[in-house]
Design goal:
Blueprint (H helix, E strand, L loop, with lengths): L7 H4 L2 E5 L3 H11 L4 E6 L15 E4 L1 H10 L11 E3 L1 E6 L5 E5 L9 E5 H12 L5 E5 L5 E4 L6 E5 L2 E5 L1 E4 L6 H5 L7 E14 L6 E7 L2 E7 L11 E8 L1 H9 L2 H12 L6 E3 L4 E9 L4 E2 L2 E3 L5 E2 L7 H21 L7 H30 L3 H16 L1 H11 L23
Parallel strand pairs: 1-2, 1-12, 2-8, 5-14, 12-20
Antiparallel strand pairs: 3-7, 4-7, 5-6, 9-10, 10-11, 13-16, 13-17, 13-18, 14-15, 15-16, 18-21, 19-20
Helix pairs in contact: 2-4, 2-8, 8-9
Amino acid sequence: MHPNSVSSASEKQHIVIVGGGMTGGLLAVLLAEQGLNVTVLDGAPAPAMPEGAAQLRVSTLTEASHWLLRNTGVWDCLDLSRVQPYHAMQVWDQDGTGEVLFRAEEVGAKSLGWLLENGHLAAALYRKAATLPTLDWQCGVQVDALRRDAKTGQWAVRSGDSFWQADLLVGADGARSQVREQAGISGGPRDSGHHALVATIATQRPHDGCARQVFMETGPLALLPLFTGEGQDDQRQCSIVWSGWPQRIAALRDKDAAAFAAELQAAVGDALGPVTLLSERAVFPIQERHASQYISAGLALVGDAAHVIHPLAGQGVNLGLLDAAVLAEEVKRACEQGAGCADPSALARYQRRRRGENLLMQNAMRGFQSLFEQRALPVRWLRNTGMRWVNQAGPVKGFFARQAMGRSADLPAKARPPVWDARANRH
């Protein structure tokens, strides 16, 4: 048997993924590339490539996510004119003097990350899926029932009059996962107390490929650089994510465009000049979740079905993409050894590699949120002193930058660049 091929028995097995978003779509591509039979059941219509103005929901891709897309050919399916790299990241405390400026060249990279629309990535994954003969992507399918046969170990999935049998069932169906619920895995929401407002703005001065985040008494505000917009000069559009208490965010949503722009300008200062609101303002509650288990018999959870974190650092989608890559890697190892795609040891390894790391990131985001909400003078002094120290301490600053880029020693092979030095944690 070729070392990169699955066993003939595994080729006959069937994997069903419920949910065809960014995480489910990437997992489907990774598994189908191994020659496994994969069906995606997604309730949404087929994703289409976006045109014109930027969509409201965007994601920040780390270096690890970038290589995942490059190594699977999904990157080649993107419209790169709608992908914006960022080379610097400025973080500061509005209520003090603390500031950290990260630059890509300080860690030997060209970019710290990339910004693109969620719908754009979903469409690229769908386009890539169409090239894989063992991948069947069903759109507009609402799953009605899930049941595991104790004798065969298979999962039966029903939608109307249609049925599928799955040796491995994967829940990639979002925060309110039906698969998680049917499996009896707890993962109730934890209210962060915050709502988030997202919108697209135009700026007088170019963003110069710099992502910006300011921490304020009322909550954090991120300005994420976007690609050139229709009718706009180069590098003069940003996506904003403004988090805060519900009453505060509702008040921002209800202001007229001019008053909102003025308040936004007051929050971020004059770095980008006067700003103009280009889009509607969408508001959503921020609820965290973490499943008590990522796996059950013949079943795995990935992405938001397993964990939802505060969007503070834009890491949510990257954690989900790494879930997909690690699960695919462990399934591949099991199949090459003749153990089958739902091998309990493979699923246990997946959970061991991902759950702790995701929980660590979730708790770190909670810690950051709590730290910057503290108004006591000693805490503010310590916070600002710490930020100034990090900005001047090269090795410490580099460590934080590499973490934000998704560099870690336990990256799955598909998330690594061609030349990889895990010991140095760089390439």
